[in-house]
Amino acid sequence: MAELMGGRRTATAVIAASGSDSAAVAMGEDQVIGVMPPATGTGDFDASTVNLLYKVSVDGTNYQLLRDPAGAVVYTTVAQNNTYGAMYIEGKTFKPWSFVKVCTYQTDKATPQTQTAETSIVLILGPVRSYK
Questions:
Q1: Is 4 a residue whose pLDDT tops 60?
Q2: Could you list the residue range(s) of the whole structural domain that residue 82 is in?
Q3: Is-above-0.90 flag for pTM?
């Protein structure tokens, strides 16, 4: 993890080759406020559009897909060749959760997108108090 200005820090969510879910990232007192998917030239993210969905947990053991108050899954679309670059996430979305896993899904947001190589996704974490 790297410390940034304003109390922000980074954490890397790593998805193993042949997997679609990252290892768990402990958020501590922070929450996810941004995501930096792999740059152009990084395997599966070059080949097609990928949706990042998030599994969250309060205990680090039991994970569920993160959904908004209306019941729709929360996701971030990473366009082919990552033409969107780094993306902001509404901070309060992750406020109640202690742990997060980043998961790659196909465009239907129902089918996991297995990675052909280890994939690292950088999360920007920030203090809960700053992003209400």
A1: no
A2: 2-127
A3: no
